[in-house]
Amino acid sequence: MSGGKAVNHSKDSCETFSYDEEKVSRIQEKIDQVSGVEMIFKALADATRLKIAYALTLEKELCVCDVANIIGATTATASHHLRLLRNMGLARYRKEGKMVFYSLEDDHVRQLVSIAMIHEKEGIRHGR
User: Fold this and answer.
1) What distance in Å separates the CA atoms of residue 64 and residue 70, rounded to the nearest whole number?
2) Which residue intervals define the domain HTH arsR-type in the entry (predicted)?
3) 63 DSSP 8-state letter
4) How far is CA 42 from CA 7, 16, 77, 88, 115, in A?
């Protein structure tokens, strides 16, 4: 452990600057592995895109027109958000004649959205 002087007297922070060198070193070697992952959360941080992703957890595949109606937007707006989700690797599309259908890229995206929904519901139940 490395020690130091008192830094912060807040109740939610350490009162003394002291850390576990081995633990810090071990984690620092791996911390850059998160690089790029923030883009997933950035994509889902937009309320419209999160609604679209959630809709795609409820239905395996939706056409752009379905999505537009679900979120109460124009097809142009829905297309824009779906394209962003696709470009960020969270959704895929297929074209069938004049129709374009979107689905989530894989089950990991479905799990992220589902876990976030569960977490939010639990937070409300616990009096947040």
Assistant:
1) 10
2) 27-124
3) E
4) 33, 34, 18, 9, 16
Q: Specify whether the CB–CB gap between 62 and 102 falls below 8 A.
A: yes
Query: Helix or strand or coil: residue 123?
Result: helix
Q: Is the pLDDT of residue 7 over 60?
A: no
Q: Angle at CA 57, nearest 5°, toward 86 and 90?
A: 20
Structure letter (DSSP) for residue 33 = G
The predicted structure's pLDDT at residue 56:
98
Which residue bears the tokens 């895929």?
Answer: 92
Domains and CATH numbers, the chain: 1-33 (no CATH), 38-125 (1.10.10.10)
Euclidean distance between CA atoms 60 and 10, whole angstroms: 48
- The string of pLDDT tens digits covering residues 73-108 is 999 999 999 999 999 999 999 999 999 999 999 999
Taking the C-alpha atoms of residue 52 and residue 62, their distance in angstroms, rounded to an integer, is 10
- Owner of token pair 């939706």: 62
Q: Which residues contact 122 (CB under 8 A, 6 or more apart)?
A: none
Residue 110: both structure tokens together:
């479905």
